[in-house]
Specification:
There is one protein chain. A hairpin with a 3-residue loop joins strand 2 and strand 3. Helix content is 6%, strand content 52%. The protein has 1 helix and 12 strands; from the N terminus they run H-E-E-E-E-E-E-E-E-E-E-E-E. Strands 1, 2, 3, 4, 5, 6, 7, 8, 9, 10, 11 and 12 form a 12-stranded mixed sheet that branches. With 177 residues, the protein is mainly β.
Length: 177
Amino acid sequence: MVVAVASAGCARHPPVPLAAAAPAAAASGCLSTHDGYLRARLRGAKNLDIDWRDDQLQCEGGPRPDQRGIRLAFAGPVLPDGHRLRFVFGIAGAESADTSHALPANVTVIFEGENKLYSTRGEDKCTIEQLTRAPMAAQTLRVAGRGFCVGPAAAVDGGEGLLLSRFDFAGTMVDAE
């Protein structure tokens, strides 16, 4: 059933590439090592193929508010119309291991300036297949992962959802421990 929804979305809306050619107004970079990235494939309400590199990204992360896992946020370049796309990954069970596998995740996609918000509303639709954390500087970690969702992120306004069939990222987080 999910495959039918994703296929129907693909037929109605051709994918819009959001890649290196998109202008960035205030890009500051994601990692001090200049190797941050976010790649994602979205289908449904909007069809997007995202391939953002370090100089196009702003990223941040830290422990989740409940201290059970981590939260990573990636904001892409500001587009000519002033809008920006932001992803937030809430990853459960990623407290301390250097490498983890099969972690449940909640994903939120925010279209800033468009009043559009999509969320998987729980950790049962997305999985981080592999997550690695490596020290960079005092209390700062490089976090890289890849994953997929088996169900769409629902539109908060009740409209058509977004399926993130795959994604991978490398960003940073502050580890207060």
